Amino acid sequence: MSWLTEYVRPKIRTLFTRREVPDNLWHQCPNCQQMIFHTELAKSQKVCGNCGFHMRATAADRLSWTLDEGYSRIELPKAPADPLRFRDQKRYADRLREAREATTLEDALAVAHGTIDGHRAVVAAMAFEFMAGSMGAAVGEGIVAAARLAVLQDAPLVLYTTSGGARMQEGAISLMQMPRTVIATRLVKEAGLPFLVVLTDPTTGGVTASFAMLGDIQIAEPGALIGFAGARVIEQTVREKLPDGFQRAEYLLAHGILDMVVPRVEMKATLARLIGLLRDPFVDETPPMRLAAPDPVAPPPVETVQAPG
Ligand SMILES: [Zn+2]
């Protein structure tokens, strides 16, 4: 034992051993590689301050960014678990259990009701963090429940989509959710309520082919990938080089598939404005625009001619 081993070595060791520093204090932007401090990222709603890249967000993020404080999440109906007893590299039941533990969600959807800048609304948000937002029976049930809640509360339905497509592990049952969710959107429309869809990165497959494209107003986040089949599959099928930006929000806006591309920080205010316009178009002080033609001048009385007796 010497001064070196007793004093210097432990001192050096403390200099190099990792302290209890959480490793999630910094995030790297996947687009420009800039390191962003986590509090900055929370403030900017997971948008890179350097390049404006919109990072993926969780369903819980969507609800808290969209709804005013004091909103309530609803419990979604239970769907039959693993109806096909499916197994690939892992059992489907195990995949579900792991996803539930990792996300604290029951399935790839969260639904809440509350207000958006004072306007009542039901908001449903798909969760990419839960098995890539794939749509199985539980998501279908959840969309139907959200639509029914909107009708019951006489409130518009706002739906954030993100999905890798149908849930393979549920086979044909996952495909049946396409017509089911379409019927759910009809319930909202038949009740005369606005149905607003916000497409986020990525929205693909069976979700794009069903309820995600049926909004009264189709909104997307900048740069979001939105499509049915993957670009490579399409390229191989049509044997043509696809244009730059194909299946991205801006391309779809330019080609008439979308109505608006709205940056995330402006999303809440935009949704509130749209709901206001659609539900109470004449609440402001200015007199409503006159759409009907002015009353026509009364026609001159037709002279009645006495028929000769
Ligand atoms: Zn960036």
From TrEMBL:
Q: Kindly tell me the pathway this chain contributes to.
A: Lipid metabolism; malonyl-CoA biosynthesis; malonyl-CoA from acetyl-CoA: step 1/1
In which residues is Zn(2+) bound?
C29, C32, C48, C51
- Pfam families tied to this protein: Carboxyl_trans (PF01039)
Question: What does the entry comment about cofactor binding?
Answer: Binds 1 zinc ion per subunit.
What cofactor does this one take? Zn(2+)
Reactions it catalyzes: N(6)-carboxybiotinyl-L-lysyl-[protein] + acetyl-CoA = N(6)-biotinyl-L-lysyl-[protein] + malonyl-CoA
CoA carboxyltransferase N-terminal domain spans which residues? 25-293
Zinc finger residue extent: C4-type: 29-51
Q: Coiled-coil segments, which residues?
A: none
Q: Which PANTHER family match?
A: ACETYL-COENZYME A CARBOXYLASE CARBOXYL TRANSFERASE SUBUNIT BETA, CHLOROPLASTIC (PTHR42995)
Main function: Component of the acetyl coenzyme A carboxylase (ACC) complex. Biotin carboxylase (BC) catalyzes the carboxylation of biotin on its carrier protein (BCCP) and then the CO(2) group is transferred by the transcarboxylase to acetyl-CoA to form malonyl-CoA.
**Oligomer and partners:** Acetyl-CoA carboxylase is a heterohexamer composed of biotin carboxyl carrier protein (AccB), biotin carboxylase (AccC) and two subunits each of ACCase subunit alpha (AccA) and ACCase subunit beta (AccD).
Protein name as it appears in the record: Acetyl-coenzyme A carboxylase carboxyl transferase subunit beta
What species is given as this protein's source?
Acidisphaera rubrifaciens HS-AP3
